[in-house]
Amino acid sequence: MEVQPVREDTFLLSSSTNRQFFVSSFLPASGKFKGIVLIIPGMAEHSGRYKEFAFFLVEKDYGVYACDHPRQQLNPADAEEPGRKIRYRGWQIMLENVRAMYTFVRKNHPEIPVFVFGHSMGSILARHFTALYPVYIQGLALSGSFMISFLSLSVFLNFIRLKILFEGSDKKSKWFNKLFYWNFNRHFKDRPTLFEWISSDREEVDSYVADPGCGYDCSNGFYRHLLKGIAATKRAEKLITYRKSLPVLILSGQADPVGRFGKDAVRLHKEYFEQNFQNLSLKIFPGRHELLHEKNKDDVYRYLLKWLNESLEVK
C-alpha cells in the first residue's frame, strides 16, 4: 500500500480577542481527504506532540489541524516563557482560539466533515466549545477528560485566590506545581520523574521530561483560569439543547489518575446519556493519562480511526 505524502505547515492565526496563536497542519499532499480532525492539546504540552498521530491520520485520508494555547509553547506568537496565562480572560482566549481554528478550517475546507479531538485540559475546552457554540461538527472525541464537583472547584478557587492575593497572578509556585504533579505520580511505585502518570512507556516519559515545552511550572493565574473554565464548562453542558445525534467518544486509561482510573470517563458518559445523546461511545484502554503516547498506542490509533470512519455515516 502506497504511503500518503503529507503536506505539513505551521502558521499563526488571530481570534476575536486580537491575539495570535500557533497552529500546525498536516494534510494529504493529494488534497483529497474525507475528514479533518482538530486537535486541542492539554496543559503544559504543545501541538508538536501530536505529529505521529497526525501522520497516521493523513495516511488514512484525514487532515489534521492542532493549536497551541497561550504560553503553552515557545513559538513566534509568544514572547514570554511558557506556563503563564493572559491575566484577564485567559480561558475565554483559549476558547476563542479554538473557535478561530474551526472557522479557518470551515472557510478553507467547506465541504469536509470536521471532528474535534481534545486531550485532558483540551478535552474540557472541546466540551465547552461544543456546548457553547452551535457549530456543526461530525464528532467529538475526548481523551483523558476528568470531572470535578462544584464544591471542590470552590475550595480550589478560594485557595488560588489567596495565593494570588499574597503572591500575585504571575507567580509560579514551584512547591504547588510539584504537589500538583506529585498527586498524580504517587499512585505509581517507581517514580524516577514527576511524570510517570503520563505513560507507562519509559521513552515517552523521558521525551516529555526533556521537552522544554512540556511539564513546566504554571502560574497562579493559570490555575485560576483553568478552574474557572472548568466551572463554566459544567454550567454550559447543562444547557445543551441541540444536535443530540452528535457522535461522542470518551477515552480513558485504566491507570490514569487524572481521570480517577476510568471512573470520570464513566461519569461523563452517564451525564451525556442523561441528556439524551444518541451516539455515545466509551472505551477504557490499558494505560495511563496519555493514550496516544502509551505502549499500546497503535491499538488506540486504530480504535480512533474506526470511530472516525463510522461517525462519517451519522447525519
**Fold-level CATH name:** Rossmann fold
Computed over alpha carbons, the radius of gyration is 19 Å
Main sheet characteristics? 8 strands, mixed
Low-confidence stretches: 82-87
Average pLDDT for all residues: 91
How far from one another are the termini?
31 Å
CATH architecture: 3-Layer(aba) Sandwich
How many strand units?
Answer: 8
Question: How would you sum up this structure, described in words?
Answer:
By secondary structure, the chain is α/β, with parallel strands linked by helices. It has one domain: 3-Layer(aba) Sandwich (Rossmann fold). Helix content is 39%, strand content 17%. The chain contains nine helices and eight strands. An eight-stranded mixed β-sheet has the order 1-2-4-3-5-6-7-8, sandwiched between helices. Strand 5 (114-119), helix 3 (121-132) and strand 6 form a beta-alpha-beta unit. Helix 2 (90-108) crosses helix 3 (121-132), helix 3 packs across helix 7 and helix 4 packs antiparallel against helix 7 (220-237). It is globular, with a radius of gyration of 19 Å. The protein starts with 5 loop residues before the first strand and ends with a helix. The model is unreliable at 82-87 (pLDDT under 50).
